[in-house]
Amino acid sequence: MVGIPRTVLTEEHEMFRDQVRRFVETEIVPHHDEWERQGIVSRDVWRKAGEQGLLCPLIPMEYGGAGADFGFSAVIIEELARVNATAVGFTLHSDVMAPYILRYGKAELKANYLPRLASGELIGALALTEPGIGSDLKAVRATARRDGDHYVINGSKTFITNGQNSGLVIVAVKTDPEAGRKGISLIAVEDGTPGFKKGRNLEKIGLHGQDTAELFFDDVRVPVGNLLGEENKGFYYLLTELAQERLVVGIRAAASIEAMLERTIAYTRDRKAFEQSVFDFQNTRFKLADAKAQSVMLRAFVDTCLALHLKGELTPELAAMVKLKGAEVQGVVLDELLQLHGGYGYMSEYVIGRAWVDARVMRIYAGSSEIMREIIARTL
Ligand SMILES: Cc1cc2nc3c(=O)[nH]c(=O)nc-3n(C[C@H](O)[C@H](O)[C@H](O)COP(=O)(O)OP(=O)(O)OC[C@H]3O[C@@H](n4cnc5c(N)ncnc54)[C@H](O)[C@@H]3O)c2cc1C
Prior knowledge:
- This protein is of the alpha+beta class.
- The chain has three domains: 11-119, Orthogonal Bundle (Butyryl-Coa Dehydrogenase, subunit A, domain 1), CATH 1.10.540; 124-232, Butyryl-CoA Dehydrogenase, subunit A, domain 2, CATH 2.40.110.10; 236-377, Butyryl-CoA Dehydrogenase, subunit A, domain 3 (Up-down Bundle).
- The chain has ten helices and ten strands.
- The protein has helices at residues 11-38, 43-51, 70-82, 90-104, 107-119, 234-270, 282-310, 316-339, 351-359, 369-377; strands at residues 124-127, 143-147, 150-161, 168-174, 184-190, 196-201, 212-223, 227-228, 272-273, 276-277.
- The chain has a four-stranded mixed β-sheet with strand order 1-4-5-8, with helices on one face.
- The chain is globular, with a radius of gyration of 21 Å.
């Protein structure tokens, strides 16, 4: 299909894409329906992905990662989006959670956890949201009280991706409850620590294969060495790291639109109505042309942001823009593409329907569209 040349990814990235695509086709696609029925993926696939070097590509080799750049992460994100493999929470694990351990963890913490995250032995989660607090992160209520060489954590979290499967969770807590954003710290908690419990697997309208859980902390004692970075600097670390998470949403959106557009073109060429192919109705061709133009425009913006991120120059405002527009354009375009499938678009066995419902959350998590607008508006 016509488009614009992609210059941000190298030949090496594209060679890696072949490996990722093979893995996705053989180890993920055949099991995806079953995982969606179960509401969780098997731990096996994590181990296999770890063996193939598909987890935590950014982690240096000394810690068992690939020591690669974010372009390799982008390839994984794109290949998962291509087949709407939303059940596997690799991205949250590799590109959102693990970087906190890498950047802010003390030497011992890194040596203990990073190799196990890279191998898939431990699955990572990031627990910020609480039942009463989501967008306004500075208001988190979970607390960590210092007691000798330990922190004692109390509180609860909800909507946590990889929650059921998680072996290591980074928890946002107040270490100075009176200090607002200046009182937040990030602490790593291992599954099995007494007082740490996982609640039910939450039932969602989409992302059926992804385990999303409530987490409870009742006098959970963790060594002070599990603190990431400095005490009370957690909010600052979140602001710094959220840019990458928001770029992830943009990358996924662009790849999803491209893949679903291709599928829709094929479907409408094949499908007949009124003795002609659905593709040949002017309405269909115009809708597809619009989708194509939107897709190319988003690709140009996403790749520009990716190139900036590779140079360490992606600003929070641009990250907010790529997240906002990626999520919103994806919502609009997938809705049109689903429509062109008629009733089959509404059937779960067609990827377009599942991609449409799974995409809805992109406007909500990693900072809602409204919060993205706030961030952008502040810079005007
Ligand atoms: C499937 C799924 C997976 C998730 N995974 C994780 C995870 O792994 N870890 C984690 O910590 N969280 C996770 N979340 C939580 C997610 O980040 C929050 O749901 C999101 O940040 C919104 O918070 P909230 O649900 O409390 O909504 P609220 O903050 O209550 O917002 C409600 C509405 O008010 C709007 N609003 C809020 N503040 C403003 C404002 N200042 N101006 C204008 N409008 C505003 C919001 O945009 C929204 O439309 C996940 C959520 C889902 C659904």
